[in-house]
Amino acid sequence: MPELGPTTPSRTASRTRRQVVTLLAAAALAGSTLPAFAQDFPTKDRPIRLVVGFTAGGGTDAQARTVAQKLGEVLGTNVVVDNRPGASTMLAASEVARAAPDGYTLMYSPSSTFAQNPHMFAKVPYHPFKDFTPLSVGGRGPLVLSMSTSVPANNVRELVAYIKANPGKTSYASFGLGTSSHIYGEAFTRQTQIDSVHIPYKGGSDAAKDLIGGRVQYMFDSAPSAIIAAQSGKVKIMAIAASQRVSALPDVPTFAEQGYTGMDLPSWLGFFGPANMPPAVVKKLNDALVKVLAMPEVAKFYRDGGYEAGGNTPQEFAALVQKTHDEWGAMISKLGLPKQ
């Protein structure tokens, strides 16, 4: 059984330094224009739009709506979630990249938008470092392996045995080509040497519906979405794709505990704006986000979904984006996945 252990990113030191500098500049120094705008931001009569690259009803959408309500209270204006699913979150990302850098268009996005898409697609309609301003991480949490209860298995090894006994007859869902859900599915397929069909969806919510309905047999899902799906009684959560178990699922073992290595790369969701946002607006938004994410009710909502809420500085978030981009790039290169 081949291992997919940690690898060293094949980036040159100079390129990595340039990308880090680009991100740090976007996070801290970009955008010296619109000073009056920054001083008055936000105005009560103009809502802030928070773009989410998935359909309503999934785990990412639920987190975004929870934060949006509290963020609006802190900032004194309405924050409205705008769902723009499709193209593995690239539709949402390109929408935000083209928006005016005035703080009124933001994005709540998974790490796949920045860490996987650039490595998985030949044509990405945005630059992951030059077109955005990192504001703050929102939550950190793993993906999990969820399985339809129609499959007669109680652990990962039994699931693998079932698929091998039915080659080409099983399928797994993902919430989009090039997303972490897809890449983990490919890594799982390669490591276990199984024959299963990949079916990409436009978001976790649509994929979970077909998993609950038994139309697909398994998927790598976000922990919040998987917990919601499991409440139907039609889905089992089989494994945690992280180095340790999560508090919301204390009885679910990790992949490593079940004998499968390399299934533990970082996964997070975070808040971004367009490039060249005024530093004063960036600071106001970051301060508000950090405050909201520290609220006990918000932290509990994330924790109940298998995530840990917690903000950080734009500079810290920029460094995390770069690190995650490089680590996922190394995994994709090792898997030999072709660009779509």
From TrEMBL:
Q: Where are the coiled-coil regions?
A: none
One family name in Pfam for this protein: TctC
Is Signal there in the keyword field?
yes
> Which CDD domains does this one have?
PBP2_Bug_TTT
Where would one find the signal peptide in this protein? 1-38
Q: Keyword check for Ribonucleoprotein, yes or no.
A: no
**Entry keywords, A to Z:** Receptor, Signal
Report the domain of life of the source organism.
Bacteria
Family under the similarity heading: Belongs to the UPF0065 (bug) family.
Q: What is this protein called?
A: Tripartite tricarboxylate transporter family receptor
Q: What is the lineage of its organism?
A: Bacteria, Pseudomonadati, Pseudomonadota, Betaproteobacteria, Burkholderiales
